[in-house]
Amino acid sequence: MRSALLRDFLSPLPHSHLLSCRPPTGLAGEVLPPLKVMFSDKYGNPVAMNPSATPPSLTIAAALPGGPDGVLQPCGELQVVAAQAATEDGLIVSGLQLLGSEAAAAAAAQTAAEGAEPTGLQLLSAGDGLSHPTARQAQAPPSKQGLPVAEVQLRISLASSPELEPVVLPLRLRAGAPHSLRLLPGHPWEEAAASASAGGVVILQHGAALAPFQVAAFDAWGNPTAPAPDLGFAVLAGCEATTPRTKELAVGPTGLASIEGGLLATC
């Protein structure tokens, strides 16, 4: 049966261009541009909304390719949140976000509290990019210097008529905004913790430089994240007993920030 749904991004770009362009890339948790969903009968004629009737409701879910015969599979790791509002000729979908599931967020919070390595979302741990940062990542080949991007499909259907063919919109999803930082193995506090005399405190002589170390940035669901054209961020390292007191560390494409001899101990 022909789909009873038509769609169009609320964008100055022409509709035909949107259908042929590369799938847009969004961040987990990012509010995506609004969508307008319109309805047609089986002959393709536009169907106006009845102002006196209860407006229809849409079901919006995330799906992944790879099922038998190309059938999309539900993505249990993601939840979709959005608001719907009726207009004279359709429905406006706004505030659209793809979030990690509540279970993924709880798992990320638990591992952070325990000081364990975050696991992140499975859909963002595959591909050619590096998934979870390690101290060896700095020596990775240049072709590996990047984080995975997941190919996701937004499946939009009419809740009251699930038999109708849904609208499917492709989307490339990457990790969300930074939510936590984690020191990578080999940092100076690790050695200090193993020393009975240091008692977990890093001891430096005046003028000595703090030993190099790395930190990794993670989003709210435990995925390593890195700056993007629309998401710029850096790491600040600061201490009243060092010069300079605050140092800004650039975060690389794999989500790592490194400090190498940039903080000197002062009395």
Question: What is the gist of this entry?
Answer:
The chain is mainly beta. 10% of the residues lie in helices and 34% in strands.
The H-and-E topology, N to C, reads as: EHEEEEEEEHEEEHEEEEEE
Bin the helical content.
under 10%
Mean pLDDT: 78
Number of helices: 3
**Number of E-state strands:** 17
**Beta-strand proportion:** 25-35%
Query: Kindly, what is the distance between the CA atoms of the first and last residues, rounded to a whole number of angstroms?
Result: 78 Å
Q: How many domains, as an integer?
A: 2
* Coarse morphology: elongated
- Strand count, sense and closure of the main sheet? 5 strands, antiparallel
Structural class: mainly beta
The value of Rg in angstroms is: 24 Å
Uncertain parts: 1-21, 127-144
Would you mind describing this structure in some detail?
The protein has 267 residues and is mainly β. It is built from three helices and 17 strands. The longest helix has 13 residues, at 102-114. The chain starts with a strand and ends with a strand. Residues 1-21 and 127-144 have low confidence and may be disordered.
